[in-house]
């Protein structure tokens, strides 16, 4: 049978022992205050399993490791395995490298049902990822019910069609698209994720990417008589919030409602891709950041926030998406940073250069490229490196219009990313990882029902012949 080396991520401290453990056996849990909250020590003997964890998250991650060791059948929704499972004996000592191990899921461009989001939480937890960044609003849709402003979902939650692929022409599919979450839906997602030690970080994007909100309440765009529609295109809309006092009051109400639902200490406020941005627009995001700070939370904004002469709101975290330089700048200035550069960890970007890749957009980033990614930039001085909280993969869904397409874009690259943010930098051998993935982890994904991209290329039904992309 395979040993620890074949079955577990790298690098994990493993001390093999003689003998095998025939599962099921008793599992004993104990708290070890000398371990970090997410750390654990797993001791497997012929007589049973002992888990020593620094906290409940560590115990949960130890359980995920036991699932890995038991075999792919342990990842199925119901028991189908007959007979015992054989586990190698020994000790596993494990702890994450980063405290922020995240993935953004964009539910604004293409809505994902509550059930699909819950499934995605399960997939994150199985890979020991601990942040789900939920992108709830954009030009193409508003997904958050706000009782004080019902038109946000009555109008802003649906559009009359969608651009087909990525092009500069007028072609649309003519199919209405929409959906939103009630407050109870979101509370359920939060509670479900919390049980799996995943923090849900909600994002309401301001002052750009706001066309859906402006379609619902045109005064937000500065012209109450305007009649804009929820956008049916992809890209960056000219719909930008008017940075007036009434807009600030409107979004204080929106974010106040958000705080009632989401206990996350971090709340996303956007700040990216604002056409014709002014210091008044930056002032709007700063005031919302201050609003969050006054209520004991921290703002998370994209790295365009650094382009303003205005100081950032206290405690604001920067998501460095346009590359690594913004993350370096922010960390040197004393801000905490989450690294999410599009050149490396945008999982909606194409996975191969060949013609079979469905709707090829963005940079070419293979599985191997993702596994080679190093979240701490080389140019960052040692004293600033602790300000890198971790990293986050991004799943923007302009071209991911079903859960099957999300699976295809995310996996197995998200498995590679999960190992990058959990494990120490060295050693990281690509060929060895791909072998482990092929032999042991892809069967786990099969058991979970994940329609990942095969290592040798897409299956026929995973292609999108004739649908244009925009590769970079």
Automatic annotation (TrEMBL):
Gene3D superfamilies: Chitobiase/beta-hexosaminidase domain 2-like, Glycosidases
Alphabetized UniProt keyword annotations: Glycosidase, Hydrolase
SUPFAM superfamilies xrefs: (Trans)glycosidases (SSF51445), beta-N-acetylhexosaminidase-like domain (SSF55545)
Domain Glycoside hydrolase family 20 catalytic, chain residue ranges per copy: 98-275, 284-424
Domain Beta-hexosaminidase bacterial type N-terminal: 30-95
Cellular-component GO terms for this entry: membrane
Pfam families: Glyco_hydro_20 (PF00728), Glyco_hydro_20b (PF02838)
Active site: 273
GO terms under biological process: carbohydrate metabolic process; glycosaminoglycan metabolic process
Lineage of origin: Bacteria, Bacillati, Actinomycetota, Actinomycetes, Pseudonocardiales
Identification of the protein by name: beta-N-acetylhexosaminidase
Catalytic activity entry: Hydrolysis of terminal non-reducing N-acetyl-D-hexosamine residues in N-acetyl-beta-D-hexosaminides
Recorded superkingdom: Bacteria
